[in-house]
Amino acid sequence: MKSVLIIYTGGTIGMKEDPADGTLKPFDFSQIKEEVPELNKFDVRIDSYTFDPLIDSSDVEPSLWADLAQLISDKYEEYDGFVILHGTDTMAYSASTLSFMLEGLTKPVVFTGSQLPIGVPRTDGKENLISAVEIAAAKDPEGHAYVPEVAICFDSLLLRGNRSTKYSAEAFNAFASPNCPPLAEAGINIRYNTDIIRKPVYWDAQLRVQTHLDTRVSILKIHPGITPMVARHFLCAPEIRACIIETYGSGNALSKEWFLQILKEADAQGKILLNVTQCKSGTVNMNLYATGASLKHAGVLSGADITTEAALGKLFCLMGRSDNNQWVKTMLEKNLCGEISK
Ligand code: ASP
Fold first, then answer.
1. How many Å from the N-terminal Cα to the C-terminal Cα in the chain?
2. Which residue, 4, 16, 24, 39, is most buried by CB atoms nearer than 10 A?
C-alpha cells in the first residue's frame, strides 16, 4: 500500500471562524479528516503531522522551512510522497525555497491550501487536498513517482513550486506559473505533463537537505520617482549581501548616472545584484535596450525568467551554502531545479 504524510502548517484550509470576534483561526487536523471523509477512501495510508503552533502563512519564517525540510528528510524512507497544507499567502515562497533545500528529490512534495476554509459549503479545500494526496501517491508503471518535484496543487492544476506565484487574492485559481506549463491537470483523470516534469539523475539518489539559509537579501522594486537615498539603502547597506532588483519589462531600469554609480558602488563592494522583471511573464534580456545594457555593465546579473519568490529562495540557499559570492553568482545563472528556462 502506498503512503503519504500530510504535514499541516496552518492557513485558510484549516481555519474556522472564532465566534468571539469573527476572525479566522486555525483548528486541529482531526477536524480536517472529519470534513474530508473522502481521504479515508483512498487506497493509500495517510498519516499526518501537525505543526505547533499552526500559523497564518504571513508569519512564515526560514526556521519553518528548515523544520519542514528536516521533517521530510527524517520521514523520507517511510512515505511515497508528502503533502504540505500551507496558507496561500506565502506558499509560492515556501515551495520555491524548499525546491532548493531538498536536493536529489525522488518523491513528490506537494503544497496545497485553499481560498475558503474547508468547513464552508463552497470550499475549494476539499478538491485541492484530494488531488494533492492522489498526486503525492501516484507512481508510473515502473514504480517511480510521477512528480519527483516540489509542486503546488491548486484549482485542478499542478504547478512547479519554484515557478509559481500567488496571482489572485479571491479567485479559486489563486496560483499561476506563467513561464512554465502545468506539471499536471486534474480533470476526470489526472494528466501528467511528462515532458515538463523533471526526473532525478538517479532514482536511488540520497536526499540531501540544506537547512542553513543566509537571509541577507534585499528586494528593490524600481519605480518612477525612486530616490538615491532609497536605492543606496537597498543596494549598499552593509548588512546586505545580495539585492534582487525588480526591473521594468525585459530588465530595464532608469538610466540616470546617479543610479548607475550606486550600482557600481554595490558591485565594487562585492554585492550580488540580480535582475528580475516585475512582469509576471517573460524574461530579462539585458541586451535589448540601452537601459538594460547599462545595468549589465554595472555588474548586475540576469535572473532570466525567474520569479522573485524563486530568486529569494535560491539566494538564501546558495548564500547559506557558501561565503564565496563569486561562486554564488556562478550558480545563480545555472538552472538548478527548473526555476529558469535554460
Ligand atoms: N492568510 C492565509 C495564509 O496565508 C491565507 C490563506 O491561507 O489563503 O495563511
1. 38
2. 4
pLDDT band at 240 (very low <50, low <70, confident <90, very high): very high
Distance CA 48, CA 231 (A): 46
Helices (H), the chain: 29-35, 62-75, 91-101, 125-137, 228-236, 257-268, 290-297, 308-321, 325-332
Gap from CA of 152 to ligand 1 centroid (Å):
14
The closest-lying atom of ligand 1 relative to the alpha carbon of residue 114 is 8
Contact 273, 243 (CB under 8 A): yes
Which of the residues are catalytic? 12
Which pLDDT tens digit goes with each residue over 141-171?
Answer: 999 999 999 999 999 999 999 999 999 999 9
Backbone φ and ψ for 129, nearest 5 degrees, come out as -65, -45
Dihedral sign of CA atoms 330, 315, 85, 188 in order: negative
Q: Which residues contact 177 (CB under 8 A, 6 or more apart)?
A: 159, 160, 163, 164, 165
